[in-house]
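A quick aside before the break. I want you to see a complete sequence-to-structure record at least once, exactly as it would be stored in a machine-readable document. Don't worry about memorizing anything.
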Amino acid sequence: MRLFCIFLMRPTSKLLAKQVYRVNQIQMTAKTDRLFFVDAMRAWAILMMLQGHFIDGLLDPVFRDAGNTTYNIWLYFRGITAPVFFTVSGFIFTYLLIRVPQSGMENPRVAKGIRRGIQLLLIGYLLRMNLGGLFKGEIYDSFYLVDVLHCIGLSILGLIGVYVPTAKKKSYVFPTVLVIITLVLFLFERVYKDWSFAFLPDFLANYFTKANGSVFTIIPWFGYTTIGAFISVLFTRFKNYRHLYPAAISIALAVGYLLIYQSSNFFEIVYERTGFNFLKQLLTNNYLFIRLGDVFVVFAVFMILRRLMTNKTVLKIGASTLSIYVIHFVILYGSLTGLGLYRFFHHSLSPEIVVPGALAFMITCTWLSLQYNKYELGIKTQISSGLAFIKTQAIELKELSIPVLREVFIRVRIFLRRIFRTVRS
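That is the input. The structure line, written in tokens, reads:
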């Protein structure tokens, strides 16, 4: 239609062409603000998590050969999944949080974030419930163990806890605090890793130590969330910079290279000059900074391919990570019922079965999630209607039963008085 107008109005065609160009630029800017590559990263991370959990849980230990190149490549990429997922979660939440013009507690995203964090914590505990134990009046110890959802929910609350007191201070305070938290958690991980946190009740200690069987702990993983929040602050501050992506890609690749290949050498030099014992402990396993370097490289790759990351299905998968996680937990680990694939095929399958099985598992979980999202509104409406109906019936039953119960109570009291008089006489 715009081209048709241009041909009709030849004298002002250049002006119209400029107007059309500006409109298109505005539309492109609106699309760019959404940062499709981050949604694609989240989709990639959740799919990597699906296949990682499936293969790790069901592959026979006989085939876990450290000398096998293919297995080592898979193992390395599996190790990247959680850092990317936590970093992207912190990025997305903070990006939405600081884009709002209000600041501090006036920011509506704060209340939404608190609700979201609590929701993730509750879902995390719900997935670890066992109906068989509940019917017996017993809650198993596994219910209190901490997993990814617990940590992400608590991380969101933690980011809010950092944001609220710093939001109205100098603009550099919030990102500086985020970087400091990451550095402290990563630098001292070898120190606090062996702490038992015995002074805390087990259900709280499980957030800080794996001694009781927790899969993830809030420390050090909160450090990836805070660095993701820091990156989102940078993206927000420089979103109108003309060469944003070339600069961001170059910086991400450079930082990734330094963290992966040079961070251990750097810490060794600093240790030799300072003698700080925590650096000596860090050098025994510098995995946190190396994995952070991997995260920066992944960011760079997805930014390079950002123009290919607008596929609707990919974006839907990136926006459906919670439902995908819940579905995969039920199918693989048998949440609530205990009847999952993990129970029947735990560490028993060969690569010929587990690899295509992982692909089928990814497709199944994703398809079920997308189907749920398609009918989510209707499902929630039906549930709300059902709960409203139950509430209405309960109120009506209460109103009807009060007179009946009152009459029964009066008759029972009269009956008991007669019996008492008879016995006394």
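Two observations worth writing down. The two ends are 104 Å apart (CA to CA). Residues 376-424 form the longest helix (49 residues). We'll return to this after the break.
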